[in-house]
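Before our next group meeting I need something from you. Please put the record directly below this note.
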Amino acid sequence: MSTGIDESTEIDESTGIPEELRSLGRLFRRTDPTPDRAISAAYGAARRLVRERDSVGVLEPLGDSAVRCRALGESPGAVGESPGAVEVRTLSFAAPGRLVELELRPTRQGQFLARGIVLSRAGQPSPSGAVIVRHGQGECRGELDLCGGFAVPDVPAGPICLRLHTRRADGLVTHRTGSDWFVC
């Protein structure tokens, strides 16, 4: 019974690429080579991406009031508030040795104030550092105060990613952690 597939095609066992595709790749590299500058830029970008991912820990989500309210079929406003009250979203994250409590409060159309506190697992304020909110237009930053509190104004609505950078007393960044992207 014939399947209509040429079974004489040699496939490179190490890469799984058929000989025809390998030959086509060799032809393109010979007749229209990629500029060295483009190759080095691509390898440089890949190195930076790997280095950034390796150096950044993960802020694990612990809780989200929007998820809880959806599950219960309630409005995200606080219990006992009037129906027209501002809807505040609260999120909790865990980082190695740290807890991050975040509140997203709408300030004007399409803008939020992100504020909260960073505590050690023992409940002590975090050392100095910054909370960075990455978004589609760039990033916003808020420095940690002496009690571990922070405020990041003018966070645009849409996908955001939370980053936490803590520093030692000498100013050296000791921990870099980041969350997955989520929508505010």
